[in-house]
Amino acid sequence: MVAVQVIEEISNPRKVIQHIYDCRDRDKLDGFPSAVAKHFFDVFFNPSDPHAVNQLPSLDLSHPPESYTSGTLHEVYLANLHNNRCGGWGIQLSQSDYAQDVFDSSHLRNTTVVWAVSVPAESPWRASEISRPASTSFPTRPPFLPHKFPLPGAPHIGVRVKIYDNPDAEKLRSTYVVTFVGILSSEPLCSEDESSLEVPVLHVVCHQLPSAREPAANLDLNFRKDLVEWISHEALGGDDEAAEWILLQLTSKVYTRTVPLLPPSLTISRFPQPSSPAILPTLSHVLEELLPQYLPIPLSLDLLNTTSFQPESKEEDLHSGYLQLPPGTTTLLTESGIQEGKLLERGIMNVRAIQDVMISQTLEYIFPFACRFPFDTDISIIVVSEGRKSAFFQTSINVPLRCSSTNAILYKPKGRKKLTVYRSYISACRAMSEKVQHIQEDFEDLIHLMKLARLLAASQLQHEVTIDVWNERRS
């Protein structure tokens, strides 16, 4: 049963905003957007009513407008209108506002503007969990500003998002996955030119960042054994060791950057070639069914030479890059499509960008005048190569595939399975890793001891840290 309050908030949100405005302290205009955000957050994200937000119509490919953030701007709006009406949230100025000349500069406030898109690399099963089934068929149309989406040619939606609670908006970063609740309207892309392209605009009343899921209480270690065996036999020709490494890779994440504890990168080498470069290995289908955010990247010289893997500013407009992915995404790079040819300048830059993500979990954004700024990533990378090592990349771990049978089938049609328990297990592994704090502290102590031992050796004019120096420093 839907609460009456939820129905009221959905049916006329601007009336609710005006009511909050009427009840505010007249001298505290600056705190009003935060009061609006708190009110709607308490309604739609109340732990006592976890299904409230599900009553809202969603913006997705089934319900496109007439979310993942990319690029930040600021706009000015008039916060106080004639007859004590509030401004913002798409509320239009009336004739009386113009007649009464309400344009008081002290009532001008800033709103944060971002361009949000569908979550790239979101697995179909995850998308179906958070979006309501389509009840109406909408006509398909090209997405607005497609260069803002990392995956060229992929179906998606894009919408301009306006956030009025600016202190909260400052917590958002590029590639964050955010749930926005707001009022949908449209406006010209360029505010100074009303004849420019009309784009959808979401005036945000509240938003929520994803929180870590609590591990399911009924999981045990038997699930681990079952999962390894399933990955091994389903996708790796019965190679249990390779399946173990795959599982470890799937549970890896960035733990800390102060003392770098970053996801390793993994190559499964000696992997047989498919009959056609366009065919993905069964391992790709397995990962898509297990992970909420997964992206296969079939590498080829054409892809590397023509597609940008890094975001790049062109004419003061940030164009997205292939690796501009949400934190927690796993990618599978297949090298079967790489044929003889030349790697051009862009291709070399792309290979370097992928290697940088593997090593340091950073991705450079390219700006004019040869300016490059690194942004943090959290992407787990698996490489599949038919050679004894990757053709392009130096990975942390290289595991040769050893199939238990010469008749192993590593390329099978995509199948659908219900893998709820396995998905919960992987999610639990990621959550548990955050709680192993004492290992991180011991590692930090080790780094500190290594630095002091090196200084002690240098002070004794020794070229290396000997056992005696190390023991002296530890004592």
What this model shows, in words?
The chain is α/β, with parallel strands linked by helices and 475 residues long. It is 31% helix and 20% strand. It contains 14 helices and 16 strands. The strands form 5 sheets. Strands 1-4-5-7-6 form a 5-stranded mixed β-sheet. Strands 9-12-15-8-16 form a 5-stranded parallel β-sheet, with helices on one face. Strand 10 and strand 11 form a beta hairpin. Helix 13 crosses helix 14.
Topology diagram in text:
Layout: H1 4-11, H2 13-22, H3 32-44, E1 69-78, E2 80-81, E3 85-86, H4 95-99, E4 108-117, H5 124-130, E5 158-163, H6 166-169, E6 179-188, E7 198-208, H7 222-235, H8 240-250, E8 266-269, H9 282-290, E9 294-298, H10 301-306, E10 312-314, E11 317-319, E12 329-334, H11 345-360, E13 362-367, E14 371-376, E15 379-384, E16 397-400, H12 420-433, H13 437-459, H14 467-474
Parallel strand pairs: 5-7, 8-15, 8-16, 9-12, 12-15
Antiparallel strand pairs: 1-4, 2-3, 4-5, 6-7, 10-11, 13-14
Helix pairs in contact: 7-8, 13-14
Describe the biggest sheet? 5 strands, mixed
**Quaternary class:** single chain
Order of helices and strands: HHHEEEHEHEHEEHHEHEHEEEHEEEEHHH
- Note the beta-strand portion: 15-25%
Report the uncertain regions. 134-139
Can you count the helices?
14
The structure class reads alpha/beta
